[in-house]
Amino acid sequence: MTPAPEPADLPDSVFFKLVRVVNLTARPFQQRVGRQHQLTLNEWRTMAVLGTRPGLTARQVADLTGLDKMAVSRALGGLQRHKRLHRHEDPTDLRCTRLYLSSVGKSLFATVKAQARQREAELFAGVAPDELGQLDAILDRLIESVADRADRPA
């Protein structure tokens, strides 16, 4: 019987590499886009979701971004302070607040989205389209797997 291979050193693990890619892409975002527009990374993540799916609740934003509730709350607070966000009570459930980008927020979203698309194109320039498709499918499966585990009681 062949022994199982030794696990890779942490820096060589797939998980560590995923974290590293996030960090390497987040740093330039904050240096270029964040400072220019007074926008934190978590505020941008929140805007990105609300810009394409207006009317979500804070919990839905947390689920879609993978951020914890406190990080989403802080991001929403920052967006609201800069007049980039409107909150509206849900007429069908008064316990819920629905979130929408303001006109200022929509304008900023359009600007930053264009910069994010450009950065994404730079990041994936060396990756073949079929490889990118495979990566996309694998990431979708990973997200689904992690989300399923997070929803289960401990």
TrEMBL record:
Ranges for domain HTH marR-type: 11-144
PROSITE patterns hit by this protein: HTH_MARR_2
SUPFAM superfamilies noted in UniProt: Winged helix' DNA-binding domain (SSF46785)
Gene3D superfamilies per record: Winged helix-like DNA-binding domain superfamily/Winged helix DNA-binding domain
SMART domains cross-referenced by the UniProt entry: HTH_MARR (SM00347)
Cross-referenced Pfam families: MarR_2
Domain of life: Bacteria
InterPro entries to which the protein is assigned, alphabetical: HTH_MarR-typ, MarR/SlyA-like, WH-like_DNA-bd_sf, WH_DNA-bd_sf
UniProt xrefs under PANTHER family: HTH-TYPE TRANSCRIPTIONAL REPRESSOR YETL (PTHR33164:SF43), TRANSCRIPTIONAL REGULATOR, MARR FAMILY (PTHR33164)
Protein name as annotated: MarR family winged helix-turn-helix transcriptional regulator
